[in-house]
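Hey everyone, long-time lurker, first post.

I ran two proteins through the pipeline my lab uses and got sequence/structure pairs for each. Pasting them in order. The first:
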Amino acid sequence: MKLRNPLITISLGFSIVAALTVASCNDEDKSNYFSFDENNMKPLYQATEKLDLTLLNNENKTIDSVAYFIDDKKVSSVKGNGKFTLDLSGKKLGYQNLKALVYFEGDTVSAKTRIEVASGITPKLLKYTVVNTYDHDVNAFTEGLEFYRDTLIESTGTPEGYKGYFAKIDYKTGKTIKRVDLDPQYFGEGITIINGKIYQLTWQNLTGFIYDANTLKKIKSFTYDKKVEGWGMTNDGKNIYHSDGTEKIWTMDPETQKLTDFINVYTNDSKIKAVNELEWVNGKIYGNIWQKDAIAVINPKTGAVEGVLDLSALRAKVTNKEAEVLNGIAYNKKTNTLFVTGKNWNKMFEIKVTE
């Protein structure tokens, strides 16, 4: 057996450790060469503002140029350490990751920060009048509500003591015309009807279902392609919109059921943290706000909240003591009215909305 020279081994060990230490220090030093000047940055910007970005040159290096990126998409470059003005108009609402790629002295280092962008629109407070009041099943833990032709389709969840289902409803009497029960493992959520098919979400199962809108026969199930929760649904005749309990509303391709894009829902000063049941009304998305007896009128392209409908006065008319939050919006195109109700409400209201 050949013995190793311990001195050589120790020497090599020190050399390797020293090399790694130097490399680590160099990497660490480089990462601190440049940083965004955050002293004048605000915690929240509006989409109508412009933001002046500058870099702190902490080691007084000679900068050749700087390339700026938003969410890894290049937006501009400047010579030296010149000021860059970022116009937030048209930028996606929500958190934006900013990166500066700094070219200096034959080397390249990146600096990162992020900003939050809110809407530049102050929401209007909308008004309404009650047109009709109808009976509603107090056992219905309402999650989705939508008209198909002249028939109301309602989807319910499955909290303890209740059985989830979706059904065709005679809204004038509150009676069920035809009902499809869910397997107990699924907590039913929002629904929407497009191309003669009913699409239904479940809460945390990452599973949705598609049914024939006329017969209510199940066509198929599908798996969400992203790990999100299922909350509300609506459609514009081409795309489906899917809320997930956060400020996001996803765009879904009805043919593939893939989530292709999203908007973040914001007012002019904050995000809407839990968008719930959705309805498409004259080019806008009307969204219930979870734990609020209110509806947000949302621009589907930007996520900006353009109006708010306070329905707390309707909640006060509900006599069922176990009634929970407002949830359920169905738009009747023929009458240009909204039908609204809530989880375990004993009433459904038909209302006319005005500015």
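...and the second, right after it:
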Amino acid sequence: MIGILLSVVCGITLGIFFEIPFLIEYADPLSELGLCLLLFFIGVDIGFSKDVMSNLKKMSKKVLLLPFIGIIGSLIGGYVASFFPGLPAKECIAVAGGMGWYSFSAIELGQIDPYLGGVALLTNVFRELLAIVFVPLVAKKIGSYESVAMCGATAMDSVLPIINKSNPPRISIIAFYSGLVISVAVPIMLPALIRIFGWQ
């Protein structure tokens, strides 16, 4: 997390105080390359997890709906949030569609508007931070599934140790499954939202 924040601060500093022609000219291609590498390594992680499918077969069918309910809830939450900061509903929904995946959402929405990309980055970073803080409380006071759903895409990686510590052991595979499905869905859903909202 510190590395991410330092990267953002360094990027802002370079943009304000230095004009480096190479970075200005190749910002978009380099961002796309970084995004492709990110997706590649998620695929590698999925490939290494040999037991995921066999464990999923043992789950209740209702549990399989968890990531989709989480996605719908996040998009509705984005719409509701548009009433508070005064941002257009479509921008709030698109930012919420990042589902905690700050790097992807920031790159995708930043190509439309750098300001919107910055909002997406900060919103989804804060979603991850809040999940790390509140997962134990939600798991204890509300429920295990709710503690997984609030994490979005981060349920399969950075927040997984917190989920594992705060819930029964069987919840970890559910969290991995939920984060995996959402991580696969976001690169499809976010560009689709961009087209639906007429940005491309």
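Reply from user beta_strand_b:
Welcome! Quick read of the second one: The CA atoms of residues 103 and 194 lie 16 Å apart. The chain has a mean pLDDT of 83.
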